[in-house]
């Protein structure tokens, strides 16, 4: 399989290539490039003279790790004409985007996502999100790669939980795009044990759905904000669990909390067919993670809410989330910071934790 398409960007257009075997092709040595990769892939690029390998985790995806990486790039004698090749999942991508954008005022880079989460979502959009202290994704910028190179066969190296994380993000994007895209996603019957070709179809569908959002609203001012569905609550769960819950899984849980909030607050009288189908599908995915219920039940609702209120998307007077309305469409809610609304938010969070997310 080989599919390619372009992403239009006011900064610089870039190309997405989905091709089986692309990872092997990318391992060739090139004197005018350096590789920034997840430690897991360091050996795969051992033939390259210039490799920076880092742990792919939330600690590395932080402002405090950036100076060390920049210094390593300089020690490798990277010039402004050099290219950085980023190899890894979403955390690695955030670091690479940020470092490539500020090193010598910006150098070119390519991205090879190695997780399903990266392949279906974060690989396009061009933005970085970096943690600062206890605040998740507090700083960042926009600096798209020249090429995104996706090898669907890399999905075979992932465990079930990593695949589920990616499917949670993919279904969120397709649901956000509208009923037609969501229907196309569900017709593919996406499950953990799919073959590579069906995963490739899911990757293409999800990216083309996201392509619409990032081309009509490149800098997160309007339509693209709907892609935050599940993220505000999800980020709070990540922080409250000390990152025992990974990002994609947290987004899945966050979508369920957002639906619950719409119901307990009275904004959603009865879940539309698509919304109920989405909820059942996400629950079915999360049910396949044996350790998740135990982790969730250890989380304190107050700690989740504390992380929730620190989210950068809120205003001084309102909590801002993405939820569903009575037609099943996503909408941006501005929730006044009143006592009753805080009670409803905590209730929505508690319902997922106490009932083990169902």
UniProtKB/TrEMBL annotation:
Keywords, sorted A to Z: Cobalt, Lyase, Metal-binding, NAD
InterPro entries (UniProt xref): Dehydroquinate_synthase (IPR050071), DHQ_synth_fam (IPR030963), DHQS/DOIS_N (IPR030960), DHQS_C (IPR056179)
CDD domains, per database record: DHQS (cd08195)
Start and end residues of each 3-dehydroquinate synthase N-terminal domain: 52-162
Record-linked Pfam families: DHQ_synthase (PF01761), DHQS_C (PF24621)
Requisite cofactors: Co(2+); NAD(+)
Domain 3-dehydroquinate synthase C-terminal intervals: 166-313
Name of the featured protein: 3-dehydroquinate synthase
Domain of life according to the entry: Bacteria
């Amino acid at each position: 399989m080989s599919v390619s398409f372009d992403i239009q960007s006011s900064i610089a257009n870039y190309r997405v290539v989905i091709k089986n075997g692309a990872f092997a092709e990318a391992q060739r040595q090139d004197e005018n490039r350096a590789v920034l990769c997840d430690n897991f892939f360091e050996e795969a690029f051992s033939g390259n003279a210039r490799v920076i390998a880092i742990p792919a985790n939330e600690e590395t995806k932080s402002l405090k790790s950036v100076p060390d990486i920049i210094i390593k790039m300089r020690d490798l004698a990277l010039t402004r004409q050099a290219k950085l090749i980023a190899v890894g999942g979403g955390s690695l991508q955030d670091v690479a985007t940020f470092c490539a954008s500020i090193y010598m005022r910006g150098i070119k880079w390519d991205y090879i996502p190695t997780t399903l989460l990266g392949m279906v979502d974060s690989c396009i959009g061009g933005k970085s999100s970096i943690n600062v202290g206890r605040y998740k994704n507090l700083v960042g910028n926009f600096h798209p790669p020249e090429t995104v190179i996706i090898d669907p066969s890399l999905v075979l190296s992932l465990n079930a939980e990593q695949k589920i994380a990616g499917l949670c993000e993919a279904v969120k994007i397709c649901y956000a795009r509208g009923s037609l895209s969501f229907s196309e996603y569900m017709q593919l019957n996406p499950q953990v044990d799919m073959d590579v070709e069906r995963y490739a179809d899911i990757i293409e569908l999800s990216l083309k759905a996201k392509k619409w959002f990032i081309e009509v609203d490149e800098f997160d001012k309007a339509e693209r904000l709907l892609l935050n569905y599940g993220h505000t609550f999800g980020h709070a769960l990540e922080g409250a669990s000390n990152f025992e819950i990974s990002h994609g899984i947290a987004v899945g849980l966050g979508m369920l909390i957002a639906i619950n909030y719409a119901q307990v607050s009275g904004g959603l009288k009865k879940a539309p067919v698509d919304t109920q189908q989405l909820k059942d599908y996400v629950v079915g995915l999360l049910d396949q993670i044996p350790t998740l219920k135990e982790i969730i039940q250890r989380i304190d609702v107050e700690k989740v809410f504390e992380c929730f209120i620190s989210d950068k998307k809120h205003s001084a007077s309102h909590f801002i989330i993405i939820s569903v309305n009575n037609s099943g469409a996503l909408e941006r809610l501005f929730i006044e910071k009143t006592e009753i609304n805080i009670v409803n938010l905590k209730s929505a969070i508690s319902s997922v934790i106490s009932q083990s997310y169902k």
